[in-house]
Amino acid sequence: MKLLPTLAATALLTTSFYSNALVIDFTDSTKWGTPASPQTQSYTSASGMTFNVQVQAFRNNGNPTNYTFNAGEAHSSCMAVTGLACNGDGLGVRNDEISGGSNNLQKIEVRFFDETNNPLSLDFLNVQFLDLFANEGQNNSQAEVATILFDTPPTTSVTGTATDRLGFASYDASGTSSSTLTALVLDIADTGFMDFSLAAITIDEGSDAFKVAEPASLALFGLGLLGFGYSSRQRKPNA
């Protein structure tokens, strides 16, 4: 897979930045406050299409486990900065956040399905993180780095720049279509205290998957009207 250059996080790309956006808010306790393995929640697009979002956490290089939702991690400034519900800091693994290391690589997989459980490829706009800091990474002195994998390229890394209590980071995913997103820490020798929470995914409401196809019966009816109009114009008036 192609590895894009590391991107600086910015608080400018919040959910309010985009029009026609559907936000999958993992800080919303009404949807994601009860961890499961996996957990599935339904959403409805502006066009009226219902689809499913499935979250699965993994630990120890591939073993499924419950994700975590830490309500105690919510901060008063979170909603103003991110535009999210901020009942917690998003999705983590096991005892807290998504972390890594050669013996315990953790990850969160988010998959999208239609109502009949077929994979659904959607157009991404934005991926948001919390607890991704500029100074809590390797050796507790370097920037933390989150890695995002899609089921089709690209793969990208998002570097924390925040030094406040939020650790908010935002990745502009415009132009990326995928049915799966995986968030993890790369398996490198020295991950130190590197960890983060997956806070939200913003989907483009204009995704082809959300477009309502014209019913065949309406199309045939329209063709019939056109044919009737044409034949009427061709008919000569009676003498």
From TrEMBL:
- Domain of life of the source: Bacteria
Tell me where the signal peptide lies. 1-21
- Look up keyword Signal and say if it applies: yes
Q: Which organism does this sequence originate in? A: Photobacterium sanctipauli
Q: Which residues form the Ice-binding protein C-terminal domain?
A: 214-233
What keywords are annotated for this sequence in UniProt? Answer: Signal
From the Swiss-Prot or TrEMBL record, give the protein name. PEP-CTERM sorting domain-containing protein
